[in-house]
């Protein structure tokens, strides 16, 4: 990896009065990584970011940047630059003055600043727009100006607080790849905050999934998606169908769960929970919509599920079938469109089969609310 | 439909009344500044004159008052804008539970009568002065210092209100962004917060200056050896006013109109420039071919400003060459003639009356035996004719011999004579 500056959080606690915003966070972010904190709003991810950037002193624990403890060092002395959720471009300064603000306060001459601004404007594909005011730019352009302004300060760590949330879908997707591109080019550590799991998975080297101040899981996108640690991580990242039940039998790293609705089903125990699940424990079984395949109606077995079809949707690349699931919640099945003919089965029972390896069993826990 | 037009009509009527009420006195006062009579009045119009302006500029006390007002105003602007900004910043930073209390305390000086502030300023600083063991003519007891301090106590609150309004629209993320980019707190204040606050600071400064300029009731206790314009005017009015004060008022009105028009023109221009920039293409901006709209194009305020400026220059120009001496002499002449005419009239009336009385007397002497109750008819007239309306004009004396002298002394009360002597 490139020689970027890493960030470590050690036993980090942040409290506001009685409210615990961050609970014992331990994170190692490698230098040059694109690292994301993913969680629903109010889970404490922005709080962590503010602790890293220096706007908040942790109640306990340490923030280390490049191995140096940042205790008592103000935000203006830290090698970080933050991109704010609302961007916080200085409204009265022209674009080029905005971008080179960090140079201005160091006393650089206007000529130097202008030169650097033009370089950065070229990089963010806004050549020649330096004399505009931020209010005269579009949302995506402002976004890029904010990035350029942060990069101009030559930080070791760039912190991004949901910077894409205000953009429309098309622009957001475009900016995702652009951000990733920029990160690769400058080679510094990016810490990215988002509640959008798509953003986190597509851009990040590593993702931390957070829930109510606790980090549930840290890993790369594939691990998080395929091998979640907790019921929350499994239900928050991507779509998932849950089957509640109790553990009937543990066989190596596989388990048989007697589910409330669909009888005994086999699943793989998620790798972090191997050995932690015992017979009689409450358990949850997660199967992704795309992990199902059609089977002859009425087939019985430990990897077959039968239910009534309630709704069908054709989405182009996939055919979505919604079936009666647990607790009034629908179970979603996505079958890839491979040119086969889909007959409507609305109101009829349907049997699905899945590969045991694609079903994950976890100890029962809180699910993400949508 | 009929109702509707009636509504519109009454709204227009209301507007006319309202503006007449609002601006009428100013217009009348401005007119009196150009009329020649020695007492400010708009009607009857006598002569166009600029002498009141030169009278104004030759009045040492007024000029000194203006200078003192400017001194005090400048000091007050500096002090109260600084205090107001500090107070406004404090309000946004303070612990939320204390905010309401803090606000009440800081607003309180506005609610306290100016007289009280004046007295308390005087008493307080006198104490401080004595505690420090300073002389009576020390800086702390100088009229300039006391007036600035006294006025600033409540003007700072006005400033704070203006500044808080703007500060509430400030995004604190801007401060954080500046800090995050490496700026110190001082740099953030200077480069981010202050530029943002600049419009509000400007309006607070204008407000503070005007409030200081027109203040009387606080200043009257504190001015010491620095009488401000309001103090001087108040003292002058005691001995009667002349149109020189109207001239001063007119100058102030004119300056206000200038300032308002200038401000409006500036705002309009900014809008036009922004609109032009928005429609300009990138190439235009790049190559410098982009042309800003002209100062006067589609900017009514700017046009008006120029027109008013031209008019002022023209008036000042004519004022230097124009001499109303002839007109004033003519007016004097007509007045003299009028007075003479009136005297003649009076003399005529008295002569008639005397003739009538003589006739009556003749009648009475004929019937003398019939009316023995009346002792001396010649002396009787002084008492018996009290109820005769004709006697009122003569102040009771009616002997024909005294008439010429009488009219001379009686003329003192004739307002027309004020100008003629």
Summarize the structure.
Chain A has 370 residues and is α+β, with helices and mostly antiparallel strands. Chain A is 22% helix and 35% strand.
Q: Any chance you could write out the topology, listing elements then pairs?
A:
The complex is a heterodimer of chains A (370) and B (421).
Chain A: E1 7-16, E2 19-29, E3 34-38, H1 45-53, E4 60-65, E5 68-69, E6 80-83, H2 95-99, H3 101-104, H4 110-123, H5 139-152, E7 157-161, H6 169-186, E8 189-194, H7 197-203, E9 206-211, E10 214-219, H8 221-226, H9 231-236, E11 241-251, E12 254-259, E13 263-269, E14 282-287, E15 292-295, E16 304-314, E17 318-324, E18 330-336, E19 349-354, E20 359-363
Parallel strand pairs in A: 3-8, 3-9, 6-7, 7-8, 13-20
Antiparallel strand pairs in A: 1-2, 1-4, 4-5, 9-10, 11-12, 11-14, 12-13, 14-20, 15-19, 16-17, 16-19, 17-18
Helix pairs in contact in A: 4-5
Chain B: H1 2-32, H2 51-57, H3 60-93, H4 96-111, H5 114-131, H6 143-167, H7 172-180, H8 185-214, H9 219-222, H10 229-237, H11 243-279, H12 282-287, H13 300-321, H14 325-366, H15 377-384, H16 403-410, H17 416-420
Give the C-alpha Rg of chain A. 24 Å
Shape of chain B: extended
Report strand % of chain A: 35-45%
Count of spatially separate domains of chain A: 2
The greatest inter-chain interface is formed by: A-B, 30 and 22 residues
Domain count of chain B, please report it: 3
CATH superfamily of the largest domain in chain B: MetI-like
Calculate the mean pLDDT score of chain B and round it. 79
Beta-strand content of chain B: under 5%
Count the DSSP helices of chain B.
Answer: 17
Helix content of chain A: 10-25%
**What is the first-to-last residue Cα distance of chain A?**
37 Å
CATH architecture of the largest domain in chain A: 3-Layer(aba) Sandwich
> Uncertain segments of chain A of ≥5 residues (pLDDT<50)?
none
CATH fold name of the largest domain in chain B: MetI-like fold
What is the CATH C-level name of the largest domain in chain A?
A: Alpha Beta
Q: Sheet with the most strands of chain A?
A: 6 strands, mixed
Reading the helices and strands of chain A in chain order gives EEEHEEEHHHHEHEHEEHHEEEEEEEEEE
Radius of gyration of chain B: 34 Å
Number of helices of chain A: 9
For CATH, the homologous superfamily of the largest domain in chain A is named as P-loop containing nucleotide triphosphate hydrolases
Membrane topology (chain B): Multi-pass membrane protein
Subcellular location (chain B): Cell membrane
Protein name (chain B): ABC transporter permease
Family (chain B): Belongs to the binding-protein-dependent transport system permease family. CysTW subfamily.
């Amino acid at each position: 990896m490139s020689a970027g500056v890493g960030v470590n959080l050690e036993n980090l606690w942040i409290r506001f009065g009685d409210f615990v915003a961050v609970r014992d966070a331990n994170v190692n972010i490698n230098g040059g990584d694109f690292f994301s904190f993913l969680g629903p709003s109010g889970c404490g991810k922005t709080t962590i970011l503010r602790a890293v950037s220096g706007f908040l002193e942790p109640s306990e624990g340490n923030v280390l940047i490049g191995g140096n403890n940042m205790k008592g060092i103000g935000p203006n002395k830290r090698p970080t630059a933050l991109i704010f959720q609302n961007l916080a471009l200085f409204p009265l300064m022209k674009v080029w003055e905005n971008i080179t603000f960090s140079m201005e306060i160091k006393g650089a001459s206007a000529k130097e600043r202008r030169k650097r601004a033009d370089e950065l404007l070229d990089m963010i594909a806004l050549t020649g727009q330096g004399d505009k005011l931020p209010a005269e730019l579009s949302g995506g352009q402002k976004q890029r100006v904010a990035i350029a302004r942060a990069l101009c300060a030559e930080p070791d760590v760039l912190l991004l607080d949901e910077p894409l949330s205000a953009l429309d879908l098309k622009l957001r997707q475009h900016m995702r790849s652009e951000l990733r591109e920029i990160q690769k080019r400058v080679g510094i550590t990016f810490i990215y905050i988002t509640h959008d799991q798509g953003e986190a998975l597509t851009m990040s080297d590593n993702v931390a999934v957070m829930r109510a101040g606790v980090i549930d899981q840290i890993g790369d996108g594939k691990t998080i998606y395929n091998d979640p640690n907790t019921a929350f991580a499994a239900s928050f990242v991507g779509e998932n169908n849950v089957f509640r039940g109790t553990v009937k039998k543990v066989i190596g790293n596989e388990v048989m769960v007697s589910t409330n609705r669909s009888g005994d089903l086999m699943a793989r125990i998620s790798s972090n929970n191997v050995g932690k699940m015992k017979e009689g424990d409450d358990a949850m079984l997660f199967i992704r919509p795309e992990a199902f395949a059609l089977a002859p109606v009425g087939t019985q077995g430990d990897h077959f599920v039968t239910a009534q079809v309630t709704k069908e949707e054709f989405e182009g690349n996939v055919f979505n079938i919604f079936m009666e699931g647990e607790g009034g919640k629908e179970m979603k099945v996505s079958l890839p469109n491979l040119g086969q003919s889909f007959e409507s089965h609305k109101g009829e029972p349907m049997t699905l089969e899945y590969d045991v390896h694609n079903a994950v069993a976890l100890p029962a826990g809180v699910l993400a609310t949508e | 439909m009929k109702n509707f037009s009636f509504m519109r009509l009454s709204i227009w009527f209301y507007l006319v009344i309202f503006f007449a009420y609002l601006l009428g006195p100013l217009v009348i006062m401005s007119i009196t500044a150009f009329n020649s009579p020695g007492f400010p009045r708009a009607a009857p119009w006598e002569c166009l004159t600029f002498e009141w302006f030169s009278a104004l500029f030759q009045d040492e006390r007024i000029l000194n008052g203006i200078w003192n007002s400017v001194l005090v105003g400048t000091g007050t602007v500096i002090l109260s804008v600084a205090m107001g900004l500090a107070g406004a910043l404090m309000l946004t930073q303070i612990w939320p539970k204390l905010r309401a209390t803090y606000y009440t305390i800081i607003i309180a000086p506005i609610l306290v009568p100016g007289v009280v502030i004046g007295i308390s300023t005087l008493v307080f600083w006198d104490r401080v002065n004595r505690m420090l063991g300073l002389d009576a003519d020390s800086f702390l007891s100088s009229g300039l210092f006391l007036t600035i301090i006294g006025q600033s106590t409540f003007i700072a609150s006005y400033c704070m209100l203006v500044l808080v309004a703007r500060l509430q629209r400030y995004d604190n993320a801007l401060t954080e962004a500046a800090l995050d980019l490496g700026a110190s707190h001082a740099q953030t204040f200077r480069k981010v917060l202050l530029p943002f606050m600049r419009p509000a600071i400007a309006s607070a400064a204008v407000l503070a200056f005007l409030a200081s300029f027109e203040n009387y009731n606080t200043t009257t206790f504190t001015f010491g050896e620095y009488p401000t314009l309001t103090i001087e005017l108040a003292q002058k009015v005691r001995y009667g006013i002349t149109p020189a004060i109207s001239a001063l008022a007119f100058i102030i009105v004119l300056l206000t109109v200038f300032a308002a028009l200038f401000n409006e023109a500036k705002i309009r221009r900014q809008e036009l420039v922004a609109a032009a920039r928005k429609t300009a293409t990138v190439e235009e901006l790049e190559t410098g071919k982009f042309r800003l709209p002209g100062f006067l194009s589609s900017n009514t305020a700017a046009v008006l400003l120029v027109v008013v400026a031209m008019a002022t220059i023209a008036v000042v120009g004519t004022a230097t060459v124009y001499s109303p001496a002839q007109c004033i002499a003519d007016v004097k002449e007509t007045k003299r003639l009028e007075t003479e005419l009136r005297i003649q009239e009076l003399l005529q009336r008295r002569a008639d009356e005397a003739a009538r009385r003589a006739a009556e007397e003749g009648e009475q002497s004929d019937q003398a035996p019939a009316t023995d109750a009346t002792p001396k008819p010649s002396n009787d007239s002084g008492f018996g004719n009290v109820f005769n309306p004709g006697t009122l004009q003569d102040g009771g004396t009616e002997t024909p011999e005294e008439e010429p002298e009488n009219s001379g002394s009686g003329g003192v009360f004739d307002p027309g004579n004020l100008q003629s002597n």
